[in-house]
């Protein structure tokens, strides 16, 4: 049973939903969270059944790609039950891809289960290959645990993409080491420009803003970069390094040049739908979900929300100010 597809006012089809399944995390990355975070009371969170209803409604309405994120999605209790419940949409063909963005800490436990549920590709966030630096940037994370997780994922048959947040004065000196490491392990690599998210206290800031234009320039000193046409409808652009054959992505969320092809919306763990990562406007989908056993009110609310999807966002780093700063954390909206 499907309903008409979700088309926003700018004729963009919404086919990609990112879902944050928890605001909690076992790490405290300096650019993402404060060390002593206050997390949401459990009753605020969508239950696993509610997450299923929510995602299934979106799939019925044309969403073909589901990315599970957080917080750290794999620390949510029983989260594999949810992944397994999404398998039916992969099997029916309605859902083309089920994927996850993780810090890797729980992968040694869950890699096989993820593969069995139909996940084929995952993103693992990893900013440094130096143990001390890793502990500094994640505060609570331990590098060997994550490396074990990545091993387990590859062994399970999952294709791994590494996401690196570019931080000047922190991992600038590891640009080539990280690139070579990924090439050796046949993993794709994407650099993310750090975004001005929330108030993180600032006391233990590691590194500073490192523009990906600059990073690209540094890569060009060693490799031949060929621009690729490959697009995902998001803020990523890709090149191939001719010397290694490797694909490298650059995510610059602060530039406007991707908004016209935006195909995605984000659902928070409390059921708020954000139509744009850089805008405050959101729609509460939990109320219509909880108000009725029928999905009709939920579907109406989703359609109304998509009807408000803005043309683009307002981030602006010009004059060294983060003008479009939004107050919520990435762990809330699900980066
Ligand atoms: N815990 C999982 C992880 O770390 O992959 C999933 C959630 S995390 C919020 C998703 C992505 O957002 C990670 O790759 C992380 O590095 C990135 N991220 C968090 N805060 C960011 C910020 N202020 N600027 C840019 N990327 C950020
Ligand atoms: Fe946790 Fe991911 Fe945020 Fe790091 S980036 S604190 S791992 S949610």
TrEMBL record:
Cofactor: binding details: Binds 2 [4Fe-4S] clusters. Binds 1 [4Fe-4S] cluster coordinated with 3 cysteines and an exchangeable S-adenosyl-L-methionine and 1 [4Fe-4S] cluster coordinated with 3 cysteines and the GTP-derived substrate.
InterPro entries: Aldolase_TIM (IPR013785), Elp3/MiaA/NifB-like_rSAM (IPR006638), MoaA (IPR013483), MoaA-like (IPR040064), MoaA_NifB_PqqE_Fe-S-bd_CS (IPR000385), MoaA_twitch (IPR010505), MoCo_biosynth_MoaA/MoaC (IPR050105), rSAM (IPR007197)
Biological or metabolic pathway of the protein: Cofactor biosynthesis; molybdopterin biosynthesis
Keyword field: 4Fe-4S, GTP-binding, Iron, Iron-sulfur, Lyase, Metal-binding, Molybdenum cofactor biosynthesis, Nucleotide-binding, S-adenosyl-L-methionine
Catalytic activity entry: GTP + AH2 + S-adenosyl-L-methionine = (8S)-3',8-cyclo-7,8-dihydroguanosine 5'-triphosphate + 5'-deoxyadenosine + L-methionine + A + H(+)
Region (Disordered): 310-335
Cofactor(s) this protein cannot do without: [4Fe-4S] cluster
Binding site for GTP: 18, 67, 101, 161, 264-266
Binding site for [4Fe-4S] cluster 1: 25, 29, 32
Positions that bind S-adenosyl-L-methionine: 31, 71, 125, 195
Subunit structure: Monomer and homodimer.
Protein name (record): GTP 3',8-cyclase
Name of the gene this protein is made from: moaA
